[in-house]
Amino acid sequence: MAKKLKYGKIAIVIFLTALIWIWADLALDETLPDKPAVVVVEESADPKLWVSFNRAFSADIRITLSGPQTAIANENRRLKDGKIRRFVLDVVQERINRPGNYNLRLLPFLQKDKQIRQVGLKVESCEPEVLDVNVVELVKKSLAVECLDENGASLRAESIEPSKVDMFVPEDRRIARVRLTRKEIEQARVTAIEMRPYVELAEDQVRYAAEPVRIKMPPQADPRSEVTIRAPRLGIALSPILQGRYKVDVKNLNEVIGPISIRATPEAKQAYEAMRYQVILEIDDEDVKAEVRRELVYNFPEEFVGRDEIVLNQRRLEARFTLSPLSIEAQ
Fold first, then answer.
1. Tally of CA atoms within 13 A in the half-sphere of 104 that contains its CB
2. pLDDT tens digits for 78-93?
3. Does 55 fall in a domain?
4. Nearest-CA neighbor of 266 among 258, 255, 274?
5. Using DSSP, how many helices (H) and how many strands (E) does the chain show?
6. Residue 87: beta bridge partners?
7. Domain for residue 92, yes or no?
8. Is residue 6 part of a domain?
9. Strands 234-237 and 279-282: what pairing?
10. Phi/psi of residue 47, nearest 5 degrees
11. For the segment 216-253, what is each residue's pLDDT rounded down to a tens digit?
12. pTM of the prediction?
């Protein structure tokens, strides 16, 4: 019985001690002055309205917080990690959801924030004291969809389905846009991709359509044109074993050094013509036995091959040749 009583007393002492520490932590409120925060607009509150702070989606503010030591310490850690407090303005909840200009008294608005209260903090003061809130009524319109590249240049699409989207926008808007990266453009040349069109309300505020459209881009225009190399030069590649010992007799020489049809950009054509040899005949040591047929190597400049700026525009020709031993005198 005495043991049970002792355990009970110990539990009561521990409980009272914990309460004292908790009360002491709550009693010793600290202040965290002049810290950055941001107020943003809750876009989903009413899709028929465009709410902004002087045409901006967000407003930077400064706040002074107070609260228990633990809560203040946690807030300090958040700020050091770059996590500033974010307050969301719901115009429906604040009853400023009719078109017009409003002065939002900031301190009462911030002090109602549930997240701040849940962590035991209180907003003591703020700067500025009032925010200008602009509420514009939007109208539902059917907008044509336009495609842009990463730089904002207009793109011609092969198809956009549907070609128009219904959106709530300012009265003067006529077009919804889709911006495509280079990778997305290349993908859309192969198969249609889904993207959500948007309307830019202000510099940092856009409104997206509820549903995506399917975009198909046309095949890329070929920058290469069909050109002819009139008098290609032939190079013959022999191993050291054959050099000086055999003569190469090309049976269809006129065909081998005949005009070559290629598709190339102007730069690639110029570089190809500047090569020492345009076609090369490779000869192996085993070719001494009989007449041989071998495809020519078209000596395209590697730089332009890698960029797909030059390709052969005809069948690959074969050279027919034999190797004849040189006389001792010729050697």
1. 31
2. 999 988 999 999 998 8
3. yes
4. 274
5. 8, 25
6. 39
7. yes
8. no
9. parallel
10. -65, -15
11. 999 988 899 999 999 999 999 998 889 889 999 999 99
12. 0.57
